[in-house]
Sequence to fold (250 residues):
Amino acid sequence: MNGAADLHTLTGAYAAHALEDEERESFERHLSACESCAQEVRELRATTARLGLAASVAPRPAMKDEVLRRIAAVRQVPPAERGPDGPPPKQRPRRLAQWALAACVAAAAALGGTAVWQYGQTQAARDQARQAEQQSQELAALLAAPDARTRAAKLSDGAGGAVVVAESRDRAAFVATGMAKPPAGKVYQLWFSDDGVMRPAGLMDPGRSTQTVLMEGPLDGAAGMGITLEPAGGSARPTTAPVAVVNFPA
Fold:
């Protein structure tokens, strides 16, 4: 650590018990004199407890292949070559260097389209990761809010759920456990209920029976939420009877 400024960034790692012994001891000394860090640690631990409402989900089977494919696309820096007695070998003739350069140019021209495609794929993955990180931060802030309130709900087919609302954050989240998989081409859609009028609040992942979803948009005075089964991509207005309607906790 370079100083107190760095120690302020360790609240999350400390709350998750992810610090080495030396770092943990240094941070605990800092924690005893820094009320803002102490407050943040308390909030993060409260968030961890609230996240216990949602069961963990195994990673997608394809994730391993995706990671290995991305690793293969990352250019590695080769180690410096050295001769048998230590010093680097002498440079090869200039003609060979020119041939190698020409070969690289030809390869770059041939693989240019692939490189552009890989760049696009990487950018898309980065955008998705950035969006997921932002949603995770917003969800954590919602769950850690002092005025966060929770109401459990029973869904169809034995599924369970709970809605968490924090007026100070003007946001809500829905936790589902054991939900039946929607039919092919369908998706569960969340709605804010404003005096019986439904307002779109995001889609659930059709491939997960247990999940925590940060509802899209502000509460804006909504009194409750609903869930309907909609065509893939969602609808502007509900097209089916609600699977569940839950009033927000008072």
Observations:
- Strands lie at 149-154, 160-166, 171-177, 186-194, 197-203, 211-214, 224-231, 244-247.
- The chain is about 40% helix and 20% strand.
- The helical segments are 4-7, 11-15, 21-31, 35-51, 63-73, 94-144.
